[in-house]
Amino acid sequence: MPSKPRVAAYRGMVLHFLSDPGEGDNAHAMQFIDDGLLVVEDGRVKAVGDAASLQSSLPADVQRVDYSGRLILPGFVDAHIHYPQTDVIASYGMQLLDWLERYTYPAEAAFDDAARAREMAEFFLDELLRNGTTTALVFATVHAQSVDVFFQSALARNLRMVAGKVLMDRNCPEGLRDTPAQGYRESAELIERW
Q1: Domain ranges of the chain
Q2: Angle separating helix axes 144-156 and 114-130, nearest 10 degrees
Q3: What pLDDT, in 10s, does the model give residues 68-102?
Q4: For the whole prediction, is pTM greater than 0.85?
Q5: How many alpha carbons fall within 13 Å on the CB side of residue 175?
Q6: d(CA 12, CA 6)
Q7: Helix (H) or strand (E) holding 54
Q8: Which residues, at least 6 apart from 171, have a Cβ–Cβ distance to it below 8 Å?
Q9: CA 81/CA 174 separation, integer angstroms
Q10: Any idea what DSSP says for residue 3?
Q11: Which class is domain 7-72?
Q12: Which is the CATH superfamily of the domain at 76-193?
């Protein structure tokens, strides 16, 4: 017997987008509802609108969450972020190469250890969610397992992520270097797996 859908209704100020605000008439690209209701069924938006008009259509057993006075927004999208660099954010470096050699390369080399990669993926994704980011284009490291553990952690949180391994065959430490053939093979395997 199929399970009953999980439905929740979130009440608050709702701001969402109806079209791309950068194209044409952006006055109609967004909608703000001062007393809105966002209805979610099995993790997908089922309805959004004025709370007064939507509430009467909800079954009595729907989970209701009141965020009155708070703003409900769509999840944010980050178009370029490196999860292995989480621990080196704000590390001081005079120039890019100095920063890479002193902080980034050692941090990324630690992702040769799957347990370390998993620990950082869990923390990184929790921080993205805590700040409202639900989708991102994420760089891992040259280590294929850094991508595997990242996708496992994202899947456990039901997040939509685009990610892949970094390809480096020169100008980096030996532990972060692969060959074009190895990079291609491992990337193809990751694509097939995920």
Answers
A1: 7-72, 76-193
A2: 40
A3: 999 999 999 999 999 999 999 988 878 888 999 99
A4: no
A5: 11
A6: 20
A7: helix 51-55
A8: none
A9: 23
A10: P
A11: mainly beta
A12: Metal-dependent hydrolases (3.20.20.140)
